[in-house]
Design a protein that fits this description.
- The longest helix has 18 residues.
- The chain has 15 helices and 24 strands.
- It is globular.
- Helix 1 runs parallel beside helix 8, helix 3 packs across helix 4 and helix 3 crosses helix 6.
- Strands 1, 2, 3, 4, 5, 6 and 18 form a 7-stranded mixed sheet that branches. Strands 20-21-24-23-22 form a 5-stranded antiparallel sheet, with helices on both faces. A 4-stranded parallel sheet has the order 10-9-8-14.
- The chain is an alpha/beta fold.
- Strand 23 and strand 24 form a beta hairpin.
- The protein folds into 3 domains: about 150 residues, FAD/NAD(P)-binding domain (3-Layer(bba) Sandwich), CATH 3.50.50.60; about 110 residues, FAD/NAD(P)-binding domain; about 120 residues, Enolase-like, domain 1 (2-Layer Sandwich), CATH 3.30.390.30.
- GO terms for molecular function: flavin adenine dinucleotide binding; NAD(P)H dehydrogenase (quinone) activity; oxidoreductase activity, acting on a sulfur group of donors, NAD(P) as acceptor.
Length: about 475
């Protein structure tokens, strides 16, 4: 008999989600973690980054209070207290991810390094265990590019930027993706000089029109952004040497150029599990292509023909698929058509579905519907008119994608995620009742603009005149 019905490698968001459901259903579950419970998200990713951003945004709000006719003294940043705030947030959430909680719901928590020694056998720091099903949720880590000189120059990734003993005088950020931009705004808001260096354009996966607005906002906050800047060498200082000879020097260097799956130390060959640069190769249902006992979830999963997605909410989504397949033996497969993502700057940039460029590249006939936040009463009342709601729809009104640039955009994108996932007609979205005044009116007004041409067409006007003659 196997020792466990299910063994889960990794206690990050994806692994914890699988374990929580399986253990509460009465299965014998082993949860194996070699480092901190909660994984990257809790300890060095989503949670501390949003806590640091919250502090920075509070400073920026105080500095901008003059727009309401208020006089507030320039805020003083107590760096040690800000770091204590970040660690306090982590500590407040940690009990939900703790060993004690998962032991209490019936899981066996093993602390140590897990590696395959057979198709259904794991070694955990010398202990041997067998499981009917194994879920690999070992996550990912920050990628460090092979740039000459980088290995010899002190630098940080998301794993060690939180809890710095001193405030950086000038933070250089290599990479203009979500992590780079969020950390740029967080540190700029807390009084650091910040320069972002990006080889292509910032937020490269997001809609270019919305990114234009984000770029402007960040630059107005004092963040220097260098795009199309190829780093050819890193020198002591630290300093980034760009193609063409320009040298950009700072006091600290953060590398934020993407993620790499943690596959090297798992003994995947011994388990008959195939993996590549994107992670463990799986079918669309997250089962290993070469070992039917094994599933992969979260950052380490590379579904066939779809590719990895390094978001915490994807890990939770993957967990639901694996529970359906491995526990209930039901069909389930990954579908990213309605996968939302958010850059948590101020303003936020939220996207779901296809961008305009992606829709055109896929050959879709599309219409673009826009509504600027400058025409939204709530945005005007709060003196935050920057931003745009942008919808990508078919000529018949099916929503293919939605992008929102504005404050609290991440809180609004859920409606449009559901609209794409459930194929909600644009007419229903344009006709829904939203509270006034709210920012959510902006995407609703964008949806309504789809019908404006036919509503005010000459034919409609003739019909209205005819109806007006009726008693």
């Amino acid at each position: 008999m196997p020792d466990f019905d299910l063994a889960v490698i990794g206690a990050g968001a994806a692994g914890l989600s699988v374990t929580a459901v399986a253990a509460q259903l009465g299965l014998r579950v082993a949860l194996i973690e070699r480092e901190r419970m909660g994984g990257d998200c809790l300890n060095t990713g989503c949670v501390p980054s949003k806590a640091l951003l919250a502090a920075a945004h509070a400073v920026q709000e105080a500095q901008a209070a003059g727009r309401f006719g208020l006089r507030i003294a320039e805020p003083v940043v107590d760096w040690d207290a800000v770091q204590a705030h970040v660690q306090g947030v982590i500590a407040g959430i940690a009990p939900m991810d703790s060993e004690a909680r998962f032991t209490a719901i019936g899981a066996t928590v093993l602390r140590g390094h897990a590696r395959f020694t057979g198709p259904d056998v794991l070694a955990v720091d010398g202990r041997r265990l067998r499981a009917r099903r194994i879920v690999v949720a070992a996550g990912s880590r920050a990628a460090v590019p092979a740039i000459p000189g980088l290995a010899d120059v002190p630098h940080m990734t998301n794993a060690d930027i939180f809890g710095l003993p001193e405030r950086p005088a000038h933070l250089l950020i290599l990479g203009g993706g979500p992590v780079g931009l969020e950390m740029a705004q967080a540190h700029a808001g807390l009084g650091c000089r910040v320069t972002v260096v990006e080889a292509e354009r910032i937020a490269g996966r997001d809609d270019a029109e919305l990114v234009d607005g984000l770029r402007t906002a960040l630059q107005q906050q004092g963040i220097a952004i260098l795009e199309g800047a190829q780093v050819i060498r890193v020198e002591a200082g630290p300093a980034l040497v760009l193609a063409g000879g320009r040298r950009v020097a700072g006091s600290h260097l953060l590398v934020a150029v993407g993620r790499r799956p943690n596959i090297e130390a798992l003994g995947l060959d011994a388990g008959g599990v195939r993996a590549g640069p994107g992670g463990i190769a799986t079918d669309a249902g997250l089962r290993s292509l070469t070992n039917r006992r094994v599933f992969a979830v979260g950052d380490i999963a590379d579904p066939a023909g779809i590719g990895p997605r390094a978001f915490t909410h994807v890990g939770s989504y993957h967990a639901s698929i694996v529970i359906r397949r491995a526990v209930f033996r039901l069909p389930a497969r990954v579908d990213y058509a309605a996968l939302p993502r958010v850059i948590y700057t101020a303003p936020e940039l939220a996207q779901v579905g296809l961008t305009e460029a992606e829709a055109r590249a896929a050959g879709h006939a599309i219409r673009i519907l826009r509504w600027p936040l400058s025409e939204n009463d709530r945005a005007q009342a709060e003196r935050r008119p920057e931003g745009l709601a942008k919808l990508v729809v078919t000529p018949k009104g099916r929503v293919l994608g939605a992008g929102l640039l504005g404050h609290h955009a991440g809180e609004m994108i859920g409606t449009w995620t559901l609209a794409i996932a459930r194929k909600v007609p644009l007419s229903a979205l344009a006709g829904m009742i939203v509270p006034y005044p709210t920012l959510a009116e902006a995407p609703k007004r964008a949806a309504g603009s789809f019908f404006a041409a036919s509503l005010f067409a000459a034919r409609t006007k003739r019909l209205v005149r005819l109806l007006a003659r009726l008693p």
